[in-house]
Amino acid sequence: MTPHVDTAELAAAIAVVDRARALLGEARELLGGTGMSRDQDQWMTAGSPVQTLQGADDMYRGTCGFLDDLALALGYATAGLSERAVRHRERARKGFIGIGGADRMARPLPGPTVEALELLEGLEVLGQEFRGRIRAALDAAQATYPDPAQFRTPAAFGRTTAAQSPA
After folding, report:
1. 78-118 tens-digit pLDDT
2. What sections of 33-154 are H helices per DSSP?
3. Closest C-alpha to 92, from 10, 25, 19, 21
C-alpha cells in the first residue's frame, strides 16, 4: 500500500519554516554587525558575542536544511513518489542539529530568535522530542555551551585543574 503524505500540511510547514529562517537570518545579521572580537577567549565562553553569533548561524543554517527536507518531501509527494516523500518527512520530523546553537547564545535571546523558535515549536510536523528541545532553549536562563570545564589544562602540564584549585 502506498503511504499517504499530507501535502497541505507540508506546504503550511514550509511557509512557517521559511518565516522562521528569515527571522533567524535577521537575528544573525543583527548580531554580526556588532564588530566583535574573535579572539580565542571569546570561543571558550558560553554566551560570549562570538558564541552567540555562532549559535545564531547554526540555527539559521539548520533551518535552511530543514526547509530543504520539507520541500523535497512536498515535491516527491506531488510527483507521486510517496515513499521518498515519507522518508524526507520523517527526516524533517526529527528537526535539525542547529537547534543546539541556542545553547551558545547569551540571554536574553534576540527578539527575532525567540519569535522564530516559537514558530518552530508550534509545528505539528516536528516530533515532540525536538519541540521539547526548542522549549528548553527558550526557557534556559543562560548559555550553557561550551562547558568551561573542557578548557581547563590538566595538572600534568604544570597547571592545576578546577578540582585541584583552592576554592
Report:
1. 999 999 999 999 999 999 989 999 999 999 999 999 999 99
2. 40-43, 49-78, 82-93, 111-121, 128-139
3. 10
Distance CA 117, CA 113 (A): 6
Burial 101-115 (b: 16+ CB within 10 A, else e): bbbbbbeebbebbbb
Torsion angle of the four alpha carbons 2, 65, 109, 45, in this order, in degrees rounded to the nearest 10 = 130
8 Å CB contact between 126 and 88: no
Question: In what helix (H) or strand (E) does residue 29 lie, and over which residues does it extend?
Answer: helix 7-32
pLDDT tier, 49 (very low <50, low <70, confident <90, very high otherwise):
confident
> What's the whole-model pTM score?
0.82
Question: Within 13 Å, how many C-alpha atoms sit on residue 163's CB side?
Answer: 4
